[in-house]
Amino acid sequence: MTELKDFVYELHRYADQTHTLKDKYEKLTDDEKEFVMSTAPEDIETPNQQHHPVFSWLENLQNQIDNS
């Protein structure tokens, strides 16, 4: 269970970081956003797109743990 708690803790930190990155990305101009994404690997989504699945994952995981 300790490893699971550690994982949830790190996932929470990762979710917080994706939120921060999303906020910073949203403040960029359209040209800056285009530039940033042009340098990203093809399979990397925008910070806006990354943010939502991570928070959904964290929420689902916490709900499953709470209901166990």
Question: How does this structure look, described?
Answer:
The chain is mainly α and 68 residues long. The protein is 79% helix and 0% strand.
Question: Which properties best describe this structure?
Answer:
mainly alpha; 68 residues; 3 helices
Major sheet details: none
| Helix content range | over 70%
- What's the overall average pLDDT, rounded? 96
What structural class do helix, strand and pairing data support? mainly alpha
Shape designation: elongated
What Rg, in angstroms, do the CA atoms define? Answer: 15 Å
SSE order: HHH
The end-to-end distance, rounded to whole angstroms, is 12 Å
- The number of distinct β-strands equals 0
How much of the sequence lies in strands comes to: under 5%
What is the domain total for the residues? 1
Q: Runs with pLDDT <50, length 5+?
A: none
Our count of helices gives: 3
What is the strand and helix layout of this fold?
Layout: H1 2-26, H2 30-38, H3 47-66
How would you summarize this macromolecular structure in one to three sentences?
The protein has helices spanning 2-26, 30-38, 47-66. The protein is built from three helices and no strands. 79% of the residues lie in helices and 0% in strands.
